Amino acid sequence: MTEQEILAGLGEIIDEVAGVPAEQVTPEKTFVDDLDIDSLSMVEIAVAAQDKFGVEIPDDQLKDLKTVQDVIDYVRRAEVSA
Amino acid sequence: MRLTEGQAGARVLAFGGYQPARVVTNDELSATVDTNDEWIRSRVGIASRRIAGPDETVVDMAVQAGGKALAASGLSPADVDLVIVATCTPETQIPNTSASVAKRLGIVAPGAYDLNAACAGFCYALANAADAVRAGTATNVLVIGAEKLSQWVDWTDRSTCIIFADGAGAAIVGAVSEPNEAPGIGPVVWGSDGDMADKIYIEDRNSFIFQEGQAVFRWATTALAPVARQACEKAGIDPGELAAFIPHQANLRIIEGIARRLGAPQAIVADDIVTAGNTSSASIPLALSRMIERGEIASGSHALLIGFGAGICYAAQVITVP
Predict the structure, then answer these.
(1) Which end of chain A is more exposed for a tag (fewer CB within 10 A), N or C?
(2) Maximum alpha-carbon separation in chain A
């Protein structure tokens, strides 16, 4: 999956879970400060990302993913090693 | 050996609920622990909860809810021959809660047992009751979920004291009136996962309830929608036809998460947690009784119930609203 595809997928997920319009979901944005997403929504995003990308993001990894780009990188790395 | 004559199906005849008088608001809690109304509302969806008086017991609350359900059903105490109380916070291990509740309601010599499946308890008890009626081992069953969680909460722990509350809810279960009438309680889908036993627990009799919130949240928002869909499938009811969805009132965010993944666009989703808090096994019948009282769900429509909690235990079934 390309970075663009993952970004588009994340945009859909974040729109559905947190009500943030997909176009605001850009790589440099931080979840907490820029997108106003709390820890429970992050869990929901991780669960939805697992459905969409087939990549599991455990809770202990999730807390280190601060920006949209961090998630994109995580998904891509997991795809390579899978 | 002979067996009892069975019944074609079981149904819920009536619900009843009871909440203690004392309302505890988020502002009241933020005076004693480091939290605030906005945080509690956004994370768990609770605006206020009810807390039992110091001398008010689980038996007292169960009697109140059970009495209301019995009155609403039109049956008399003599018609009830089995009493099941789902609770994880009984005052005493022995005697059990159910025999005392039966005695106080004037139900003479019924089968009586307590059931602990934590927050899934009511759905387990409802399934047991339906099976007993179908098998012919009980005629009418009083099923109660009753909890006094306030006595197991550390009121200085802001992660739990904002969530848990007290209350009771009850249902009367009997046979369908005609042999060819559609059953009113669908097949239960139940299960457990002991691997998650350390996520919600009370260590010993001198301890308080502990919950690993994020892990429970992830499990609940992932594992439960498939269980809910399976309960619909077994009952032969499409989720799109459901008039109501009443999940255990654990956390509004969990409720919304499961509802979104279930896909039941016509269903009114119970949000009783907003003013009741998380009352464990009491939450489903309490929410249902209040929704019926307010006229939010029509008699004869289908509602999906799903209980889930410590153990981890879960159970779901479709019912016909009485």
Answers:
(1) C
(2) 32
Residue B87 identity (one-letter amino acid)? T
Contact indicator for B202, B209 with CB cutoff of 8 Å: yes
Radius of gyration of chain B (CA): 18
B213-232: per-residue pLDDT in tens?
889 999 999 999 999 999 99
How confident is the prediction for chain B on average, in pLDDT?
96
| pLDDT tens digits along B275-313 | 999 999 999 999 999 999 999 999 999 999 999 999 999
- Confirm or reject contact between A48 and chain B (CB < 8 A): no
Q: DSSP class of residue B185?
A: B
Question: What number is the ipTM of this complex?
Answer: 0.82
- Alpha-carbon span B255 to A40, nearest angstrom: 13
**Homologous superfamily (CATH) for B189-320:** Thiolase/Chalcone synthase (3.40.47.10)
Active site residues of B: 119, 248, 278
Q: What is the pLDDT of residue A3?
A: 92
Provide, as residue numbers in chain A, all residues whose Cβ is less than 8 Å from the Cβ of B215.
59
Residues forming CATH 3.40.47.10 domain(s) in chain B: 10-175, 189-320
Identify the pLDDT of residue B50: 98
Which of B199, B219, B221 is the best mutation test for A, with the most CBs of A within 10 A?
B221
Residue with tokens 């009500």: A19
* Domains of chain A, start order: 3-81 (1.10.1200.10)
E-state strands within chain B:
10-18, 22-25, 48-51, 82-86, 111-115, 141-148, 166-175, 189-192, 200-202, 209-211, 244-247, 268-269, 302-309, 313-320
Q: Tokens 């979840």 map to which residue?
A: A31
Nearest chain B residue to A50, by CA: B222
Residues on chain A touching B212 (C-beta within 8 angstroms):
none
Instruction: Identify which of A16, A38, A47 has the shortest CB distance to residue B218.
Output: A47
What is the second-level CATH architecture of the domain B10-175? 3-Layer(aba) Sandwich (3.40)
* pLDDT tens for each residue of B182-196: 999 999 999 999 999
Residues of B in contact with A39 (CB under 8 A): 214
C-alpha distance across the termini of chain A, in Å? 13
Which pLDDT value is given to residue B51? 98
